């Protein structure tokens, strides 16, 4: 099960997921100019970030929107980035947030679990219902693939729909989390977590405590660190003995060089230092 592989990566390296949300405007000008195409600039930038962090990051999340925004050039960079990560046996999460009727989901599964854009995990939006997840499950069972399904997202507007309560005061996201955990019981790894994971933002500490307690077999992908205001305190509540989740940071890592004088010439080292700092902050919080 992919959950076991990710669990062991976290054990070895700590719970950090590096987010490769590579907006071309983040690439330092002098680096960008070394290459003839946007595709090559994006890919080579990612490659430097990956090489600088692969020993301290449990996994890498590639957010497809940043690549789609650059058209075919971007998608080529996306494909090459995933291939590079997989060639180094690093765990990949394709942040594609798909959600559609089962027949269409079948095509999304084929597109992102096989072929040009193959990834270990993909993110899905389960708010269309559990039938929209069914086509992915055969890949989870037979091909060591995994899902991270949205539960309680990190954005302020998460409250608009995810906080709607039933008559007993139970919120929509709590129902979603419980349904996903139940579905995940058929895909349990020996580590005690399922390959059907959940996305929970580290921007709200109270929800974190409750979710960690109730969803004891759900491995979490935890965005919201850094640029969205989440910190070690909020992220740590989702972890158990330092495991059971990976904390994503994208902008704070990719743009770390902007905080250092002359940093654009060593953006990869700045990214590495940011990951080390983040890992230390979370570890300190866990040891309190
Ligand atoms: O609830 C969610 C779900 C996904 N994301 C994604 O995570 C990263 C966050 O990027 P930062 O730059 O570290 O803020 C981004 O790819 C989002 O699409 C999320 O933020 N919240």
UniProtKB/TrEMBL annotation:
<dbReference type="Pfam" id="PF00215">
    <property type="entry name" value="OMPdecase"/>
</dbReference>
<keyword id="KW-0456">Lyase</keyword>
<comment type="pathway">
    <text>Pyrimidine metabolism; UMP biosynthesis via de novo pathway; UMP from orotate: step 2/2.</text>
</comment>
<dbReference type="InterPro" id="IPR011060">
    <property type="entry name" value="RibuloseP-bd_barrel"/>
</dbReference>
<feature type="active site" description="Proton donor">
    <location>
        <position position="97"/>
    </location>
</feature>
<dbReference type="GO" id="GO:0004590">
    <property type="term" value="F:orotidine-5'-phosphate decarboxylase activity"/>
</dbReference>
<protein>
    <recommendedName>
        <fullName>Orotidine 5'-phosphate decarboxylase</fullName>
        <ecNumber>4.1.1.23</ecNumber>
    </recommendedName>
</protein>
<keyword id="KW-0665">Pyrimidine biosynthesis</keyword>
<dbReference type="InterPro" id="IPR013785">
    <property type="entry name" value="Aldolase_TIM"/>
</dbReference>
<dbReference type="GO" id="GO:0006207">
    <property type="term" value="P:'de novo' pyrimidine nucleobase biosynthetic process"/>
</dbReference>
<dbReference type="InterPro" id="IPR001754">
    <property type="entry name" value="OMPdeCOase_dom"/>
</dbReference>
<keyword id="KW-0210">Decarboxylase</keyword>
<dbReference type="GO" id="GO:0044205">
    <property type="term" value="P:'de novo' UMP biosynthetic process"/>
</dbReference>
<feature type="domain" description="Orotidine 5'-phosphate decarboxylase">
    <location>
        <begin position="15"/>
        <end position="266"/>
    </location>
</feature>
<dbReference type="InterPro" id="IPR011995">
    <property type="entry name" value="OMPdecase_type-2"/>
</dbReference>
<comment type="similarity">
    <text>Belongs to the OMP decarboxylase family. Type 2 subfamily.</text>
</comment>
């Amino acid at each position: 099960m992919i959950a076991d592989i990710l669990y062991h990566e976290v054990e070895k390296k700590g719970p950090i997921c590096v987010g490769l949300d590579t907006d071309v405007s983040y690439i330092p000008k002098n680096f960008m100019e070394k290459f003839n195409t946007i595709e090559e600039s994006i890919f080579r930038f990612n490659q430097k970030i990956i090489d600088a962090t692969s020993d301290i990051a449990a996994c890498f999340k590639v957010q497809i929107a940043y690549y789609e925004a650059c058209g075919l050039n971007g998608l080529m960079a996306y494909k090459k980035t995933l291939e590079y990560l997989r060639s180094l046996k690093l765990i990949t999460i394709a942040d594609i947030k798909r959600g559609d009727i089962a027949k269409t989901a079948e095509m999304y599964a084929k597109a992102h679990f096989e072929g040009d854009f193959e990834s270990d995990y993909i993110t899905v939006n389960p708010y269309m219902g559990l039938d929209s997840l069914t086509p992915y499950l055969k890949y989870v069972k037979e091909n060591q693939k995994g899902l991270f399904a949205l539960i309680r997202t990190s954005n302020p507007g998460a409250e608009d729909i995810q906080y709607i309560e039933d008559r007993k005061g139970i919120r929509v996201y709590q129902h979603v989390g419980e349904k996903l955990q139940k579905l995940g019981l058929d895909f349990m790894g020996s580590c005690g977590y399922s390959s059907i994971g959940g996305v929970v933002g580290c921007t709200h500490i109270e929800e974190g405590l409750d979710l960690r307690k109730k969803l004891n077999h759900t491995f979490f992908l935890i965005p919201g660190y850094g640029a969205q205001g989440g910190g070690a305190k909020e992220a740590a509540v989702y972890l158990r003995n330092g495991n059971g989740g990976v904390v994503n940071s994208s902008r704070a890592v990719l743009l770390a060089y902007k905080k250092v004088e002359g940093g654009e010439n060593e953006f990869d080292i700045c990214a590495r230092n940011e990951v080390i700092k983040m890992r230390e902050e979370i570890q300190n919080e866990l040891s309190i």
